[in-house]
Amino acid sequence: MNVNLAVLIDGDNIPSAYVKEMMEEIAKYGNPTIKRIYGDWTKPNLSKWKNMLLEHAITPIQQYGYTTGKNATDSAMIIDAMDILYSGKVDGFCIVSSDSDFTRLATRLREAGMQVIGIGEKKTPNPFIVACDKFIYIEVLKGKSKGRSLDGEKEYEKETFEKITAREIKLIATTINDLSDDEGWAFLGDVGSLLQKKQPNFDPRNYGFQKLTPLIKSTRQFEIEQRDNPKSSNKLIFVRNKESRLPNNHK
Description:
Blueprint: E1 4-10, H1 19-27, E2 31-39, H2 47-56, E3 59-62, H3 72-87, E4 92-96, H4 103-111, E5 115-120, H5 126-131, E6 134-137, H6 138-145, H7 151-160, H8 166-179, E7 186-187, H9 188-198, H10 212-219, E8 222-227, E9 236-241
Helix pairs in contact: 6-7, 8-9
């Protein structure tokens, strides 16, 4: 089934430099049938967005800041999101912002059965992140687009990627245990799905890996096994915690 998405961008809160990578990422999850960006287009800080809008068929929505200290853009996005929800034309939303003011909107859309994908900078407050089904750090998308041949780009990637910590390793280990059979093996696809539900911003790309398998391999804390797939030539990948990490009832 083709998933139709409404993409709503907080123009005051997201740098225009990320738009190409951002739209490529959104296309992985569905067809962005509605694409709107909100802001006061009379202000010079949004001028860099203007050339991007035609290229990516994003509709600008003019929103004047009527009152100092109040964010009119947030209100306009929220009102439009509810109108789109009730129109029944989409299956999910992509909210592009680093602003925690959209936490309640994300929660409300999910309550209505919508898939909600959040995209924002690493400064995004945690309440908005956990209100989404999936949250993607925009810096990772930009980092991925750069090559590794130039010294400057290597420096950028070092700033972008985080080092996996004991906390994330424990999250992976407990998730494998949640799904494992009597011998401790769990299907990697199910592990990835449950990790996303537990922690919406869990993404191998945050740690410099394009996929979950190489991330898990890099920790040296887990066993990986490939099995034949009766339905295709692609192998099925299963993982389990090494013996030293298994609870007593799995030994």
